[in-house]
Specification:
591 residues, mainly alpha, 4-stranded mixed β-sheet, two-stranded antiparallel sheet, elongated
């Protein structure tokens, strides 16, 4: 026990060095972690609203909790995308207990979630693998894989992924247990609640993968059990998932309510859209987070959201592990222990891998069957980015890789493969272990080659701009309840301005950004054309003007005649308000 504790402690200490290398760059107090400024400012805007509603004494069961101040006058807007309840709760604790500001709290939350991903992944993988350095390293390589680094930095809600190994840990223990265990049932339920409060993608993928994994367990893990025992295990699983869903209803029900109010949401994931999201072969081994060591040899042939790469070296060794598995299966008569090893351990990650591959690339194999599956499987058609199933794909790849390393690590396996353990005075077991240690250190070293620089968005200019706007808005409306429509005629980025300024004031905004758009706001994308005289007024544009009390208009006076735009807005009962600002910004409000 002392040896095991020392090994665990040493493994964590060794891996904390590259971990500190990654995380130290994210705690600055005035940056948003991530490579996508627009998406992450949206995340920060939503989290700020969630925190404010928590702070006012509301709970996720209250309707007002879901009415964040964008897409005015729509209600339940929080349910247009991920709920961010778990993220908001963490930040609420940091801001109220420790007195941190919103940005510093977000940065600390981001780092804590990545550490929790590492911790719970290691705990889950320890159910398969005994040597501490192996399962701790495996958990680290998943939490800091290329896929996770891209997804967590591109979409902050993906940083809270620890609920996945949390659920699978208790699910796997439930499969192995010969008797019903109340702790496993509660563990699965709590894990599903964590997923529902943090990331609906992860919740959907996890729940949908459980039946296939259980079927694999039925065929390989407890096939010698009696029919009664199998029935009990099945009922235990159904009860655990059902309990988790019941406990998650306060979060799930608002999504059903919003979908009933916006039937157009069901048409926003068409078959044509699925074609654009399907993952191709090249996406499994290369992506936007490839380190400079390999950038000259690999390119990113597709949209970043499709990338499934766990890391170039990790994927290479994963393919090597698959080749070793096939070789040992062919040589099964010489390795009866491996056949037993496969049935005992590999059924779980292999079934998880099969599920992930189907979600990501099933459309390429059989478009008709895939469309049929997405129609009948609840929640699958509503997924916007199918490539995010890589969160399960990379987990299964790393488990399979380390299971093979673990098999080679064992003295019995080494003897069965190489004959004698000691040949000519050389201990082959030590050679195997040294080689495996070298592979793991090589995988860790790949992450430390400067490639993931921790790209961040500096919020200082956005906040300064927002505070200047805030002083002008207060002059126009002291109650800060007038809906604002922001229009930028000269930039494609329609998001950073409205949401960034929303961080500095509490006015509801007519603009919006989310996983789903109500039809009432889709015409905003034609607003520039309309004001420049290149688009006929539509019902949607007319509604946007009717909902707005103040219009903030950004434009270059040398390229857009003021008189023309002023006349259009005057016809809409808006008048120009002269404001003291260094920007070419005009405030418009209804007479």
């Amino acid at each position: 026990m002392k040896y095991r504790f020392n090994t665990v402690f040493l493994s964590i200490v060794i891996l904390l060095i590259p971990t500190f290398y990654f995380l130290s760059r994210f705690v600055t107090g005035h940056h948003i972690p991530g490579i996508s400024p627009g998406d992450n400012i949206f995340c920060l805007f939503v989290i700020k609203n969630v925190v404010q509603n928590f702070a006012s004494g509301l709970t996720p069961m209250d309707n007002q909790f879901w009415d964040i101040k964008m897409f005015y006058p729509n209600e339940g807007v929080l349910a247009f995308s991920d709920p961010f309840i778990l993220q908001g709760l963490f930040i609420l604790l940091f801001t109220k207990i420790f007195g941190f500001n919103l940005i510093l709290s977000l940065e600390i939350m981001f780092c804590i979630f990545l550490l929790l991903n590492w911790f719970f992944a290691s705990i889950f993988i320890s159910e398969f693998i005994t040597p501490p350095f192996l399962f701790i390293s495996a958990g680290w390589l998943w939490a800091f894989s290329d896929f996770m680094l891209f997804q967590t930095s591109g979409h902050l809600q993906n940083s809270a992924s620890f609920g996945i190994p949390f659920v699978f840990f208790f699910f796997y223990r439930q499969i192995k247990s010969k008797k019903w265990n109340f702790g496993n049932t509660i563990g699965i339920a709590i894990g599903l609640v964590l997923l529902s409060c943090g990331n609906l993608y992860n919740l959907t993928f996890t729940v949908l993968s459980i039946p296939l994994v259980w079927l694999a367990a039925f065929l390989f893990s407890f096939n010698r059990s009696s029919k009664l025992e199998k029935a009990k295990k099945f009922l235990e699983l159904i009860g655990s998932v059902f309990l988790g869903i019941i406990l998650s209803l306060p979060v799930i029900l608002p999504y059903f309510r919003v979908r009933s109010n916006h039937p157009e949401f069901f048409n926003q994931r068409s078959s044509e859209y699925l074609k654009t999201e399907v993952v191709h072969l090249a996406n499994f081994f290369t992506g936007p987070m490839v380190t400079p060591l390999f950038k000259n040899y690999f390119y990113d042939p597709v949209l970043p959201e499709r990338s499934q790469s766990p890391g170039t070296l990790t994927f290479f060794f994963f393919i090597s592990a698959i080749c070793i598995i096939l070789f040992l299966i062919i040589k099964d008569q010489d390795n009866p222990s491996f056949s037993k090893y496969v049935k005992k351990h590999l059924f779980f990650p292999v079934s998880l891998l099969a599920f992930s591959l189907f979600i990501a690339s099933g459309y390429l194999l059989s478009p008709s069957f895939y469309e049929f599956a997405t129609d009948i499987i609840p929640g699958l058609r509503q997924i916007r980015c199918l490539g995010r199933v890589g969160i399960l794909l990379t987990l299964s790849e790393i488990i399979i890789l380390f299971l093979i390393l673990n098999f080679l690590f064992q003295k019995r396996a080494s003897g069965s493969i190489s004959g004698k353990v000691t040949v000519n005075g050389i201990n082959k077991l030590k050679i195997y272990r040294t080689f495996i240690l070298f592979i793991i250190l090589l995988l860790i070293l790949e992450k430390n080659i400067p490639g993931f620089s921790g790209i961040q968005t500096d919020l200082n200019p956005i906040y300064q701009s927002g505070m200047r706007l805030n002083s002008n808005l207060i002059k126009l409306d002291r109650e800060e309840q007038t809906p604002i429509l922001e229009i930028n005629l000269d930039q494609d980025n329609y998001l950073i301005g409205p949401l960034g300024n929303g961080l500095s004031h509490n006015f509801p905004i007519v603009n919006g950004y989310s996983g789903y758009y109500p039809d009432s706001h889709r015409e905003y994308f034609n607003m520039n054309k309309f004001l420049k005289g290149n688009f006929e007024e539509s019902v949607g544009i007319k509604s946007l003007f009717e909902w707005a009390g103040i219009i903030i208009l950004y434009f270059d006076k040398t390229r857009n005649p003021v008189g023309h735009i002023r006349k259009i807005l005057s016809d809409k009962h808006f008048s120009m308000v002269h404001t003291e600002t260094e920007y070419d910004i005009y405030f418009k409000f209804k007479k």
